[in-house]
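Worked Example 4.2. Consider the chain below.
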Amino acid sequence: MPIYEYQCQACEHELEKLQKLSDAPLTDCPECGKPALKKKISAAGFRLKGGGWYETDFKTGSKKNLAGSSDSGSSGGSASNSSEK
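Applying the procedure from the previous section yields the following structure tokens:
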């Protein structure tokens, strides 16, 4: 779900709101109560839920590159050996 930024045109209060794409934009300012909220143009933030998301759900076998695994250390060692030659 994207996180949208809003700013009130009346009191300049700013807020972020986690909303579905299908949700209607907010209009009423929670600070002053006036219907003057406008969506700001910005890079939309979003939240991925769950542990690992892509790394553990879609990759198979040796393609997994999990943080803290011993595979990442061994690939780094081979890269340094090739630079010494």
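Residues 1-48 form a domain with the Rubrerythrin, domain 2 fold (CATH 2.20.28.10). The radius of gyration is 23 Å. Compare this with Example 4.1 before moving on.
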